[in-house]
Amino acid sequence: MAEIFPFPAYRYNSQRVELERVLTQPYDKITTAMQERYYAASPFNLIPVEKGKSFPNDTPGNNVYARATRKLAEWTAQDILVRDPAPSIYSYSQDYIVPGTHTRRLRQGFIALGRVEDYADGVVFPHEHTLAGPKADRLELLRKTRAETGQLFMLYDDPAGRIDELLAKTSRVPATVEVRDEYDVTHRLWPISDPAIVQQFVTGMADKKLVIADGHHRYETALAFRDECCRSGGSTDRNAPYEKAMMTFFNAGGRGLTILPTHRVLSNLAGFDFERFRSQLTPNFDWYAYPFCDASECAAAYHDFRKDLEGRGREHHVIGMFAGKGTFYLFLLRRAADLNHLLPDVSLRQQQLDVVLLHRLMLERGLGITAEAVAAEKHVTYEREMDAAVAAVDSGRAQLACLLNPVRVEQVMQIALAGEVLPQKSTDFYPKLLSGLTIYRMDG
């Protein structure tokens, strides 16, 4: 099953730089404003490597990928990046507050190299589809730098918590690295180089299957790069550095895991009439209207309604909608709704997902928004914060906000291990893994 390996990571030299000023969020979460802020933070910030700027006069010898390669070489020569003296596994924790709540959680995992496996081998499982554009960019960057600065976020199932016990032991001493990011998340790192302890991690993971929680594009980039290297070399060397990728592993049953909801915001709907749309949903959904003044009241009504249903022991699928005019609606799937009849091409596992019911029974049937239109983002965009989704409608930038509860971790695991994928933008694992905390250089 899963093969993991210690490695001597390159890490920023804290004697030369302030870690808060040089580490970044993952490349796909970096906005233009964040990119500019990172560039201004430090000349050694990871941003030109993680997500550099392109310029109109770029040439093959001086483009975003060539500049990234030069930066890594310069920083290594200047001892800004220093290679650890021994192969290690890195215990990694994130201390954070769940957005929109006062709940504090601690997520504990570890960083190691993992063998890159084809999906067909039944060791690594995706939970979502990927797009070609991001993979092409990441592949060219990997070709030029032969380095991985960002983490692959992997889940494994360990009900007995044996790996968690190992991690708890390693974190009883002060962390070697402690850094707080811009979202007030505290990241801590403990290198583990003792061969006997490392072997316990290797043995403990040997029977595990892995589900990609975050980083599908980067994993498939690693697959493509491995295949490319094998073709150019004419053979397969299972010990070659390109056969491995840097991964961060978390127990799916760990208490520190958080998935945030991703709300849908609809716009550009010709002739949209909410009353007509609502009436089209009534064969399958009961609805309840709640006047409210702001998004906090909207959120309170949503959660109170679900809590009441849970108190009565009722199975429920609840989807919130706001179309303006100060009224928030909750749609509850009717008890009599026969999902096997309504969604005959959807598995029982996916029939239990609110996001599937929203897209298939509400948006597709009620508004004609097909899966192809969703993929093209013709009408649907996404917001993590409920306030932002409601504000988009209030400001007139959108016509309808569809508010969801998050998918549960066990649902992600069950669906992925069954060989299925969730709908686009179904999961938002929080917090993200910092890029640059450890760096895997294949030529190191």
Task: Tell me about this structure.
- The structure is a single chain.
- The protein is α+β, with helices and mostly antiparallel strands and 444 residues long.
- It folds into two domains: 4-258 and 430-441, no CATH class; 262-405, no CATH class.
- It contains 15 helices and 21 strands.
- The chain has helices spanning 32-41, 47-50, 64-77, 132-145, 162-170, 195-205, 216-233, 274-281, 295-311, 339-342, 348-351, 354-367, 371-375, 386-394, 409-417; strands at residues 4-5, 10-12, 81-83, 89-97, 104-115, 124-125, 147-148, 152-156, 177-180, 186-192, 210-214, 244-251, 258-260, 263-266, 285-291, 318-322, 327-333, 380-383, 400-403, 428-430, 440-441.
- Strands 1, 4, 5, 6, 8, 9, 10, 11 and 12 form a nine-stranded mixed sheet that branches.
- A hairpin with a 5-residue loop joins strand 9 and strand 10.
- Helix 8 crosses helix 12.
- The radius of gyration is 23 Å and the shape is globular.
